[in-house]
Amino acid sequence: MNKLIEPGSVAVIGASRNVNSAGYGILKSLVTGCVLKSPFCNGFKGPVYAINPNAKKILGKKCYNSVLDVPGGVDLALIAVPAKLVPSVLRECSLKKVGAAAVISAGFAELGTNKGKALQEEITRIAEDAGFLLLGPNCLGVLRPSINLNASFGASTPPSGGIAFITQSGALADSIIDWSLDEMYAFSGIVSLGNMAALGPEHFVEWFATDKKTKVIALYLEGFKDGPALMKAVKKAVRNKKQVFVLKGGRSEAGLKAVSSHTASMAGSYAVFKAAMGQSGAKVVDSLEELFEYAKAVSSQPRAKKNSIAIITNGGGAGVLCADYCQRFGVKLAKLKEGTLKKLDEHMKPTYSRANPLDIIGDALPETYEKAINIVAGEPYVKGVIVIQTLQTMTDGERDARAVIEASKRHPDKPFVTVFMGGKYSKPGKTLLHEAGIPDYNDPKTAAKAMSVLVPK
Amino acid sequence: MLASAGVSLVNAFDCNSMAEVKAAYKKLRKPVVLKALGSIHKTEKNLIHLGITSIVELEVAYKKLKANAGKSLDCFLLQEQKKGVELIVGGHRDPVFGPVILFGTGGVLTELYGDVSMRIAPLTKKDARELIRETRAAAFFKAGGFREKKANEAVVVDLLVKSSRFLVEENGVQEFDFNPVMVTGKQAFIVDARLMT
User: Fold this and answer.
1) How far apart (Å, rounded) are the C-alpha atoms in residues A212 and A152?
2) Which domains does chain A have, with CATH numbers?
């Protein structure tokens, strides 16, 4: 599996000169890091071999006739030739003794035709007989940002970080990568599973379960075969302190069969899926947004030592809402001690709330935020902080953001989550927070939910 | 099958004639309940008669049920009538995850309430306790019960664990319903069991 996710050398079989083809996109992603530029584009450091019998050079890379002509070893072969050529290409990979192959090409079982299914069975057998791993077919590929590996035709490269994203939809991964450039979702790996002829979600959950870079595993699944194996892999990840979040597509039942028992009528496949994942220690989420809201919080923030959180806000309504949601999602608000309040009395306006949520009043200047954050976050009994900022005429979002970022650095064992509410004029502060890895949301509900996966239950 | 799995049912007899029903009546604690077996939703189809305390009542009930059941009649079941909290314990084989145990608020309105939770079998005692706590029926298992109705957690945990083992071991059983399971502060009785093979 290391040769697939952390290869030392990569060959692109079907490297193409046509800028609109997957074969070109993959080679460019490997050589430069991205097709569409991002601040995280760096070319892969190991050898990248282009295989195309009809070209001499593509993107500065010499082209070989066949993978068998490559001078060095090949850990990972990316295959982007027409489906009917894939078996012969894989046989060459077998002779070359590649470590793993990712088949990007489409035109297999997903067609639903007997021919497509037979072709998929054939390539599965070739890989099995040769003893190399097969990802796909019909997949986007693999990304491992920490080693500048973008072995995919994903549009760009996301930041490197703690989220392992394993997805049954490659197209989703594409858009998530673009999304991540705004929201700073940072990845330890992205794997597109494709048709899962051989490797399924359980194999990758198992691998990321022991990966040091990974803090959280985010899964997008539709259908898969081996439920018990996935449960086992998820349990292993949870035992290794990785949080696992799962989103399932294709939840509606294909039509109710004649009901022969009460149990059968209530044990629908999605209900069983939820039960199985919950039992294994994963959290089942309802949308892509939720998947990444949680994943981002867990990957960028430490776990709170105790469920004892403070809310600091310059807006009453936002604070009240946030407190309501905290209660709903099981986040406990710390009762501020008299000693803390005495310290706050010296710096806050007399009208401040003297309670948690700590309402420091609408006209709070950056100094007020700094004092409030420092005093509250500095209390040993406060184990995490939610900072809310509503936009008033005197609000300085960037300085308020810096106050949060500084406090987060001073208290690396406490999670910080922010709600810098607004749009256009709140953006500079939000951007600073995103770049510093502070999960910032626009809705107090989302912040409360994010904090709920950062506190012990 | 259930007895050998250690799962106890209410005292009852299968009967195929009025004479057998009468003989069974003498051996059971009153009141008794007569059921015409063969389909689910017996209450709605008038295939069940509760609170029988005399031979006369028994004869009337027998004739009525026989007429209501018509061709679907498999046989009659005469059993002791129990009181308690009505719960459901079910088993099902999921094509992806395998044997699944379902638990929740039982009775004739179980699907309407939808107050059920599930675990992949086999269940440990800890799994079973968590399963109970995930449902609203958990209220009955608290020290004070709910509105004077109490359910004994240990016996239900035992039933869940044994039912899950039963489902894992009996490959021929595709699904089962124990609905209702009548639970009191001391005991649990499977009042209606339906196995699909």
Assistant:
1) 23
2) 2-138 (3.40.50.720), 200-300 (3.40.50.261), 309-452 (3.40.50.261)
